[in-house]
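How it folds:
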Amino acid sequence: MSTTTTRTDGAAARPQDGSGDGPTADGAAPRRSRWRGPRARVRLLELAFLAPAVLYLLAFFGYPVVQNLLMGFQDYTTRTFVTGEAPWVGLDNYATVLGDPAFGRTALNTAIFTVGSIAGQFVLGLAIAVFFRRRFPLGNLLRSLLLLPWLIPLIAASAVWGWILDRDNGVLNQVLGALGIVSGSPGWLTDTSLALVAVIVVNIWIGIPFNTTILYAGLQDVPEELYEAGSLDGATGWRAFRHITWPLLRPVVTVVLVLGVVYTLKVLDVILGLTQGGPAGATQTLAVQSYNLSFTQFEFGLGAAVGNVLIVVSLLFAVLYLRANRRAVDE
C-alpha cells in the first residue's frame, strides 16, 4: 500500500526554480529557458538591431585600425603585395619618422593649422549664431544658405578656392588690385609664407557651418526669462552675454572645440586639393605626410607609423570629448 507525503499546511510542494511547471517523468523539475519571456524577446530584438552596426564598425573601422597598427611595426612596401612578406621591424619605422628633419616642421604646421582653424571657426561661428538668434526677415533662409560650405564636396570646394586664390588669374588678386589694397600678385598658394594662412582661411570657411549649427542649437536652450531678469539689473549686451549666455553655453562650447580639434587633425582633402602639401612642405601636416608616404612613396610602414601617431593624438582629444560630453549631460 503506497502513501503520499503532503505538507502540513495542505499546499502542494512547488519547485524551487519558480517555473511553476510540474515535475517531469523522471522526477526532475524542468528549467525555464533564459531566452523565454517578454523581457528576453525584447533583448533579442535589441541585439538583432545592434548586430549590423557592430559588424559595420568592425569591418570598416576596427579592421583598418588594427591593420594600420600592425603595419606601423612592419616593413610593408610594394614588395609585400608580390611576396606576401612584411618583416617585423619593431620601432624602426617610428624612429625613422620621428628622426626625419622634416617631422618637426610637419608637427608645427599641424599645430598651427589646427589652432588657427579652430580659433577662426569658433569665433566666427559663435558670432553668427548669436546674430541669427534674433528674429528678422529671411533669417531662416540665410541660416539655411549658411550650410552650403558644409554640404559642398570638399574636392569641389578646394577646386573653386584654388581658382579664387590663383596668383595670375585668381579673382582675389584681381579684386584686391582693383581696390589698390595690394600691389603685384601675391602667391597665396605658392608663397611659403602665405600658403599655410590661405589653407587655414579655406578650412575656416568650411568649418563655420558646423560651429554655427551646434552653437545656435545651444543658444536655443538659454531661457528668455534669464535675459529679461538680467535686463532689470542692467545686464544687457556684452554683460548679458558674459554673465548669462556664456556660462550656460560652456558645456556646448567644450564639445564643439574638442570635436573641432579631432576633425581638423585629420583634414586631408582640402590641403591636397589646394597645395598638395607644398610649397616646399609649407602646408604639410601629419595627415598629408602619412598620405604621401603611403600613396606617393609607397612606404606603407612609414605612412602607417605617422598615421598611428595621429591616431594617438586624436584619441587623447576623443577622451576629452567623452568627458566633456558626460559633464555636459550631468549639468
User: Anything to note?
Assistant: The chain has two domains: 38-71, 93-330. The CA atoms of residues 55 and 62 lie 9 Å apart. The chain has a mean pLDDT of 84. The radius of gyration is 30 Å.
